[in-house]
């Protein structure tokens, strides 16, 4: 395999489509840090199947899509393609990812799996994790790797990476097959257990049927016994009810007399209770008035006490306010004296400030004069120094310009003499233009062929999709029919027991009618030796004929006849004899002859033995028995048999349809293959023509560029020679002028002395200004402090005056309040005595009213006692009446219940055995004299029922299920044998793969070790090294250890070497792997970063030799100028627009050839 081109679109920072041509030899990639060089390596690995976002330096795989910048929107997809040549044919591998949709792979436009892409590159000794793709930090990773991890490099050299993938697939298939075999063993064991259980269930079913027959007879005896007992009990209950009626009449008379006495006692109690209530109301009113007077007396006494306390408080408050007035007078006197002193101090400070300000102004004026004189002297000194510097600088610049002009004049003359002739370049351009015209014509022809081939392929693909759809539909229909047929065949397979159900067939639509007509009788067989069987009976002439029955099936009549004559002259629906739609043994002839099928039951009369059924499964017998549904299981089996016959008739047509669809699809596949072959041929021709055209354009561009560059160089050099001669003469004149200016410079020592004297005087004046300012500021601060104290004193004076005025007002208010309290105390002084007299009079009245109320309450209690005695007598009479009535009702209820029970038992006998209860012995076949009490018969019935219940859940279709299970066990045994063969084959394949892997790995180890020893000596310019397999005797599980001995050192492992030695040793191992099994491409991402200049030269020499010895194409990312100079071509990655990478290329070999030709 040879990888020829990498195309990126929307991948990380490469938002626009960019092509990286990977030609034979060394291709360098250069550019500043962060411009996207490593993205090229990641794009290569991503297309080869890398699925780790971490390896792509992202949090998720969608991070490889261009995320947008300030000026460009984000992309919705990223696509990278690799154009490779494999076995003389070009293949294009494309990986595309869309946001929210995941990745998709294509090879030559055909959708494939990621596994297919990984195997394609693995078989070519490369891939996403190939050691040939050396990313940043890969050298240090090889150094830090464990021996077992380094074995992967040997596996790549041996070319067994694909073998590992196939072995892993085989192991997964082996595990899956073994799991299937284990599950199948479990299924077989489960089937055997189920078969044993079904055999037990079949035996239980036979026992269940026998017990059911016995239980039916026992149930008939129990019903007859209970019916007989109910009839006897009903007669006895009727006699008891007549006696209870007499007792009820006597108790009712006694209850009426007790009610009259109770009414009289109630009237007397009402009169006594009204008189007592009136007396209690009068006593309560007097008590309320007495409580009101007591409350008013307590309130007056409490008010008098409060007024006394208020008078005492006013006296204390008046004394306190007087003391406050005295304090205010003393404070005002003190503050007046302090204010006078502060005013005098403020006046003194104001008098001193003018003199201090005048002194400060004089000091500042003298300081300014000194500063001006100093500044003028400094300016004169700086001007003299600047003139000297300018003169010296002008002399140096003039001399430098003269030297440069002389040098440029010589260089221009030499360059003009060295320019080559442009005639060879003109010839090259002419030849390239002819080649370009021929290539473009060839490319246009190839594009037309490719468009026609792609159109044919697209039409064939559309036809294939339609054909695949038709084939899938045909196969699905066939599979559905076959699956349904197999299911129906298993479901309708006969059980071991002979049944009539296996010998009858009904026409479609009549299955439920037949099942309803025969019911459970379909479970009876034709075997004459069985306890129950169909013996058959001849149709007799005197058998009743079916009424309103058509002689032929309804389906045989034309549609007009069905519409015009749906009923007979009597208005009933015309029926059809069931025998016309049933295929059955002759033993059923007489039974089926008496069954009529109608759409709906019209209530027609039926003769003895006749039955009427509908096609939905409803049944009515001649004796009035009606069943809404019956024989559902039998009807379902009959429907399945009919459906199975219909499917078997349709299967040949379905198989023919599948075969025709397969043939059509095969023809279309042939057309697709032919179209793809033509497209591949046209694509190859187009690529070849485009490559030739690109090369021709590049040759034309290079020739034109060289021609234009030669002409421009000649013109530039001529103009430069003239310009440099002029500059040289001007520079000589400037040198002479500058030297004269330096000689004319004045002496600067007098100016320096004057500057020193003026600086000392200025310092003294500045100190005087500072002292004057300090004196004035000190007096201003003293005046400000005195003014602040004066303002505080004036504020305090106002405060004391305000407090003195407030105290005077409060004293006046207190005098007014004291007079009001005196008036209130005088008004309330006599009120307590008046209230005491009123309270005494009202208390006497209350005692009198209370005595009268107590007397009337005693009378009320006596009336209540009399009423309770009357109520007790009435209650006793009522209870006696209720007891007699209850006894009467109980007797009537028992009589009714026993009569109802007798009727219900008669109905139960009719429902269960289709006869009245008195004829049960004849119907069920037992002697009525032997029937015991209901309890004994119930115990016998319960015992039989318990025996049947002890059987537990009974599977009545166990025999059928057992037959189906045994048929499935045969298929499982065959499948188990096939799985065992598959396990053995997979284990043999895995063993073969392991043997092949060991052999190839050992051979690769020997080859890699030999190359490693030679390369180590080359890179270190001496020394020796070798590889060892450690940690296991099995090469497939062993680790790879590196032992090295640089020149002048002892033999030791890789981890004990210095950093630079480790890097060179790791490179030797990587290149040894290349020489053993060269990969189609090798990418080295800044692997020369840790090397010094000497090692860089040896590294580049080694790369040159590798390109000559192998077909590997090298893509080298570097920042080293020496490495760049050794490349055959360079690709520059730029980021002119922030966040967007671009590719530019330079063919260094072509440039060297052109320079050599010149």
Descriptive account of the structure:
This protein is α/β, with parallel strands linked by helices and 1158 residues long. The chain is 69% helix and 10% strand. It has 19 helices and 23 strands. The strands form five sheets. Strands 2-1-4-5-6-7 form a six-stranded antiparallel beta sheet. Helix 4 (147-158) packs across helix 15 (958-1020). The radius of gyration is 64 Å and the shape is flat.
Q: How big a fraction of the residues is strand?
A: 5-15%
Quote the distance from N terminus to C terminus. Answer: 38 Å
State the oligomer: single chain
The global form is: flat
Average pLDDT score: 79
Write the topology of this structure.
Layout lengths: L1 E8 L8 E4 L4 E5 L6 H11 L29 E10 L2 E10 L3 E6 L2 E3 L1 H10 L9 E2 L3 H7 L2 H12 L2 H258 L4 H69 L13 E2 L4 H8 L30 E2 L8 H6 L10 E3 L4 E2 L5 H5 L1 E4 L12 E4 L4 E3 L4 E2 L4 H112 L5 H80 L2 H83 L6 H5 L9 H17 L7 H63 L3 E7 L8 E7 L6 E2 L5 H18 L4 E5 L7 H17 L3 E5 L3 H5 L3 E9 L2 E7 L1 H10 L1
Parallel strand pairs: 3-21, 3-22, 8-20, 10-11, 13-14, 20-21
Antiparallel strand pairs: 1-2, 1-4, 4-5, 5-6, 6-7, 9-12, 11-13, 14-15, 15-16, 17-18, 18-19, 22-23
Helix pairs in contact: 3-16, 4-15, 4-16, 5-10, 5-11, 5-12, 5-14, 5-15, 6-10, 7-10, 15-16, 15-17
Keywords:
6-stranded antiparallel sheet; 19 helices; 6-stranded mixed sheet; 1158 residues; disordered C terminus; alpha/beta; 10% strand
């Amino acid at each position: 395999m040879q990888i020829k081109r990498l195309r990126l679109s929307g991948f990380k920072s490469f938002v626009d489509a960019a092509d990286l041509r990977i030609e034979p030899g060394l291709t360098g990639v250069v550019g500043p840090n962060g411009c996207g060089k490593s993205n090229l390596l990641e794009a290569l690995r991503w297309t080869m199947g890398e699925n780790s976002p971490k390896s792509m330096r992202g949090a998720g795989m969608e991070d490889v899509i261009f995320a947008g910048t300030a000026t460009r929107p984000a992309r919705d997809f990223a696509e990278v393609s690799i154009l490779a040549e494999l076995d003389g044919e070009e293949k294009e591998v494309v990986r595309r990812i869309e946001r929210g949709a995941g990745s998709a792979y294509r090879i030559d436009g055909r959708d494939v799996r990621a596994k297919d892409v990984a195997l394609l590159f693995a078989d070519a000794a490369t891939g996403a994790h190939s050691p040939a793709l050396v990313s940043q930090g890969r050298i240090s990773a090889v150094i830090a790797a464990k021996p077992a991890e380094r074995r992967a490099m040997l596996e790549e050299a041996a070319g067994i990476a694909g073998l590992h993938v196939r072995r892993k697939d085989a192991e997964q298939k082996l595990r899956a097959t073994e799991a299937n075999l284990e599950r199948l063993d479990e299924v077989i064991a489960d089937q055997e257990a189920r078969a044993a259980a079904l055999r037990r269930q079949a035996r239980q079913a036979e026992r269940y049927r026998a017990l059911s027959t016995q239980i039916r007879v026992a149930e008939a005896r129990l019903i007859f016994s209970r019916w007989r007992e109910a009839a006897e009990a009903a007669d006895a209950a009727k006699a008891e009810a007549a006696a209870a009626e007499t007792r009820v009449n006597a108790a009712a008379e006694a209850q009426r007399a007790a009610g009259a006495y109770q009414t009289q006692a109630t009237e007397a109690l009402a009169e006594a209770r009204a008189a007592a209530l009136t007396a209690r109301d009068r006593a309560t009113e007097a008590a309320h008035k007495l409580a009101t007077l007591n409350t008013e007396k307590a309130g007056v006494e409490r008010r008098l006490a409060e007024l006394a306390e208020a008078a005492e408080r006013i006296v204390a408050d008046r004394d306190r306010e007087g003391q406050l007035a005295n304090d205010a007078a003393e404070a005002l006197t003190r503050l007046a004296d302090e204010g006078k002193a502060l005013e005098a101090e403020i006046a003194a400070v104001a008098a001193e400030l003018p003199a201090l300000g005048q002194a400060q102004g004089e000091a500042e004026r003298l300081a300014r004069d000194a500063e001006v004189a100093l500044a003028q002297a400094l300016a004169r000194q700086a001007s003299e120094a600047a003139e000297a510097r300018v003169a010296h600088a002008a002399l140096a610049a003039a001399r430098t310009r003269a030297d440069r002009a002389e040098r440029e004049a010589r260089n221009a003359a030499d360059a003009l003499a060295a320019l080559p002739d442009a005639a060879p370049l003109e010839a090259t351009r002419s030849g390239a233009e002819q080649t370009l015209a021929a290539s473009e014509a060839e490319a246009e022809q190839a594009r037309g062929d490719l468009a026609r081939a792609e159109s044919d392929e697209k039409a064939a693909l559309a036809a294939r999709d339609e054909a695949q759809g038709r084939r899938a539909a045909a196969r699905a229909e066939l599979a559905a029919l076959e699956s349904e047929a197999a299911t129906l065949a298993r479901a309708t397979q006969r059980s071991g027991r002979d049944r009539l159900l296996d010998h009858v067939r009904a026409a479609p639509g009549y299955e439920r009618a037949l099942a309803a007509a025969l019911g459970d009788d379909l479970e009876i067989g034709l075997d004459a030796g069985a306890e129950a069987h169909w013996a058959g009976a001849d149709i007799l002439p005197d058998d009743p004929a079916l009424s309103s029955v058509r002689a032929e099936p309804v389906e045989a009549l034309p549609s007009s006849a069905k519409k015009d004559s749906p009923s007979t002259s009597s208005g009933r629906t015309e029926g059809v004899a069931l025998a016309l739609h049933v295929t059955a043994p002759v033993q059923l002839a007489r039974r089926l002859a008496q069954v009529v099928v109608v759409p709906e039951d019209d209530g027609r009369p039926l003769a003895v033995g006749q039955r009427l059924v509908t096609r939905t499964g409803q049944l009515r017998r001649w004796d009035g028995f009606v069943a809404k549904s019956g024989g559902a299981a039998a009807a379902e089996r009959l429907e399945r048999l009919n459906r199975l016959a219909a499917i078997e008739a349709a299967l040949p047509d379905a198989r023919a349809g599948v075969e025709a669809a397969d043939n059509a699809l095969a023809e279309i596949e042939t057309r697709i293959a032919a179209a793809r072959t033509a497209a591949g041929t046209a694509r190859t021709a187009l690529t070849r023509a485009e490559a030739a055209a690109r090369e021709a354009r590049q040759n034309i561009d290079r020739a034109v560029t060289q021609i234009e560059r030669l002409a421009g160089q000649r013109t530039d050099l001529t103009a430069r020679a003239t310009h440099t001669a002029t500059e040289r003469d001007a520079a000589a004149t400037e040198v002479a002028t500058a030297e004269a200016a330096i000689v004319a410079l004045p002496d600067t020592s007098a100016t320096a002395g004057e500057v020193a004297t003026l600086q000392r005087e200025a310092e003294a004046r500045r100190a005087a200004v500072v002292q004057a300012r300090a004196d004035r500021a000190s007096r201003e601060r003293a005046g400000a402090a005195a003014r602040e104290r004066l303002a505080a004193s004036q504020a305090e004076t106002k405060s004391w005056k305000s407090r003195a005025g407030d105290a005077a007002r409060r004293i006046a208010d207190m005098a007014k309040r004291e007079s009001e309290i005196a008036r209130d105390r005088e008004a309330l002084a006599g009120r307590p005595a008046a209230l005491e007299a009123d309270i005494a009079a009202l208390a006497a009245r209350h005692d009198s009213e209370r005595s009268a109320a107590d007397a009337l309450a005693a009378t009320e209690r006596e009336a209540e006692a009399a009423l309770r005695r009357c109520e007790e007598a009435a209650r006793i009479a009522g209870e006696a009446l209720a007891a007699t009535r209850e006894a009467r009702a109980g007797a009537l209820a028992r009589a009714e219940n026993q009569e109802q029970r007798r009727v219900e038992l008669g109905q139960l006998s009719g429902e269960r055995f289709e006869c009245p209860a008195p004829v049960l012995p004849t119907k069920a076949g037992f002697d009525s004299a032997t029937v015991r009490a209901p309890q004994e018969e119930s115990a016998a019935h319960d015992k039989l029922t318990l025996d049947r219940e002890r059987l537990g859940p009974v599977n009545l279709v166990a025999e059928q299920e057992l037959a189906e299970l045994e048929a499935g066990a045969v298929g499982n045994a065959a499948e188990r044998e096939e799985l065992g063969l598959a396990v053995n084959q997979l284990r043999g394949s895995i063993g073969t793969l392991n043997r092949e892997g060991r052999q190839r790995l050992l051979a690769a180890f020997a080859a890699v070790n030999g190359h490693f020893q030679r390369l180590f000596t080359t890179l270190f310019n001496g020394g020796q090294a070798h590889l060892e397999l450690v940690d296991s005797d099995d090469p497939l599980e062993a680790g790879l250890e590196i032992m090295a001995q640089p020149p002048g050192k002892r033999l030791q492992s890789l981890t004990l070497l210095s950093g630079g030695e480790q890097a060179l040793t790791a490179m030797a191992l990587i290149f040894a792997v290349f020489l053993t099994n060269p990969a189609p491409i090798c990418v080295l991402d800044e692997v020369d970063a840790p090397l010094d200049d000497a090692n860089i030269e040896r590294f580049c020499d080694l790369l040159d030799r590798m390109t000559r010895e192998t077909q590997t194409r090298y893509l080298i990312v570097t920042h080293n100028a020496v490495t760049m100079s050794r490349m055959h071509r360079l690709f520059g990655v730029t980021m002119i627009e922030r966040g967007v990478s671009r590719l530019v290329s330079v063919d260094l070999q072509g440039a060297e050839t052109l320079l050599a030709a010149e």
